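Q: I have 246 residues here and want to know how they pack in 3D. Can you give me a structure?
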Amino acid sequence: MNTTPSEKMQIEIWSDIMCPFCFIGKRLFDKALDAFAHKGQIQVVWKSYRLFPDVRYQEGSDACTVLAKTKGLARSSMQQAIAHVTALGRDVDIRFDFDRLQMVDTFDALRMVHWAAMHDLGNDLGSKMKERLFQAFFEEGLNLEDRRVLAQLGDELGMDASATEIMLSSRAYAAEVEEDVAQASQIGVRGIPFFVLDRKQALSGAQSAAAFSTLLHTAFDGWQQKTVPPAEVAMSGESCSLNGQC
């Protein structure tokens, strides 16, 4: 049976393409959602956040060096953090490749997620676009400031490349990205990924699939029964703080 958006429980997820725990968290959340008996009654809404809005692509730059400088860390400390994230990624079949990773402004990539969601015909195109961008950034070392690259990624998912390039050359969905970032501040987001279920329960950081599953069931039961659970952060996991500390 088809359901309309108003007949679905909404889950909003704040994240940035360059946040490794957002990628890990998405994989774990997807695992929980795929196993959820009422998946068809869940609407996932991807919200934008920009960890490093001042970073721009520099050809030949080393991601470890750029990250260390941006975060105010010694290179050795950054290398340890990268090793930790890389090990966590292997557990969810993510092949983090920080040697190839190209630091960029993710603004256009975040616009792409909104663009994809607008084209959604019930096949979770927004989520598929988010996943493809994560893969391109963290595993393939693609330059996500290059609008031709973004158009090609969209084309892989069935979105017309020419239309995507026209969209990217405009200011389309810029306001949506900026509004998402402002909203994160308004609701007290302190780290990403940040999950809000039915505008009543919140979850910060990458959790285990079991933890995501527990909260899914709790929130869905409340949504079905129209009850109001405590509006607080229920659990906290590994995340990137809003100043980019991961």
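Q: Anything worth noting?
A: The beta strands are 9-15, 42-48, 191-192, 194-197, 201-204, 233-236, 240-241. The CA atoms of residues 61 and 69 lie 12 Å apart.
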